[in-house]
Automatic annotation (TrEMBL):
Transport among keywords: yes
Organism in which the protein naturally occurs: Noviherbaspirillum sedimenti
PROSITE patterns attached to this UniProt entry: ABC_TRANSPORTER_1, ABC_TRANSPORTER_2
Lineage: Bacteria, Pseudomonadati, Pseudomonadota, Betaproteobacteria, Burkholderiales
GO biological processes: L-amino acid transport
Protein name: ABC transporter ATP-binding protein
GO MF annotations in UniProt: ATP binding; ATP hydrolysis activity; branched-chain amino acid transmembrane transporter activity
Residues of the ABC transporter domain: 2-234
Record family assignment: Belongs to the ABC transporter superfamily.
Annotated signal sequence range: none
Length: 234
């Protein structure tokens, strides 16, 4: 579904990603794990086209997407949940969700998505007329995920859904991933929380200083001694 081939990208003269290659098959949940500053958000920005590639190629469903404007990439079926969430604080829950759905131009589908999302996150349904800025971090994260799902994405890119949340809240977000995946949505999960994100995915890539340094099944990565020492505090 997604093929990233030897991309280089960064900010101005600063190169962050170096020859990064990875792939995601339709139906998978794949993790990209790495420490602060490894380049995880930069990778997501590059895939979504908000940051240009310096070289390399990104293909989505066979089509080259690097070089396309972000809104066209989104229209092809990619949606991101950004780190820090970026909601419209002055708007209520339902309006935030509706804005996500606008890209579909399909009122029926939009209503179906809304019903599904409210079913998955009842807290959002209870508070559909509450302003987003009054929400706790966990509720905002649910809303940000809901907004991305409103676009009926084929591939959902999640940038550190655990960031700044209490462990119990993190768990209640992560446990929705299989449900989202079961609806036919492929997931690329970017996380510092190595153990949790690998537990919820079948495969992973380890990013260090902008380079993929390791890849394998989640079981292989979780059993790797070097990785345990570096990321799992063992
Ligand atoms: N807008 C920017 N301009 C210049 N450099 C940036 C910018 N954003 C990030 N960087 C640099 O790019 C590198 C990778 O940052 P990035 O945000 O991709 O890391 P990350 O893996 O997402 O980290 P975190 O886990 O802290 O979110 C860092 O050295 C960072 O300082
Ligand atoms: Mg980041």
């Amino acid at each position: 579904m997604l093929e990233v081939k030897q991309i280089n990208s960064g900010y101005g003269d600063v190169q962050v990603l170096r020859q990064v290659s990875l792939s995601v098959q339709a139906g998978e949940i794949v993790s990209i794990v790495g420490a602060n500053g490894a380049g995880k958000s930069t990778l997501i920005r590059t895939i979504m086209g908000t940051l240009p590639t310096q070289s390399g190629e990104i293909r989505f469903l066979g089509e080259r997407i690097n070089g396309l404007p972000s809104h066209e990439i989104a229209r092809l079926g990619l949606a991101q949940v950004m780190e820090g969430r970026r909601l419209f604080g002055h708007m209520d829950v339902e309006d935030n969700l509706r804005i996500g759905g606008d890209i579909l131009r399909d009122e029926k589908r939009s209503r179906e998505n809304l019903t599904w999302i409210y079913g998955m996150f009842p807290k959002l349904a209870e508070r559909r007329r509450q302003l987003a800025r009054s929400f706790s971090g966990g509720e905002q994260q649910m809303l940000a995920i809901g907004r991305a799902l409103m676009t009926s994405p084929k591939l959902l890119l999640l940038d550190e859904p655990s960031i700044g949340l209490a462990p119990i809240m993190v768990e209640s977000i992560f446990e929705k991933l299989p449900e989202i995946n079961a609806r036919g949505i492929t997931i690329l999960l970017v996380e510092q929380d190595v153990h949790r994100s690998l537990s919820y995915s079948s495969r992973g890539y380890v990013l260090e200083h902008g380079e993929v340094v390791m890849t394998g099944s989640s079981a292989e990565l979780l059993a790797d001694e070097g990785l345990k020492r570096a990321y799992l505090g063992l």
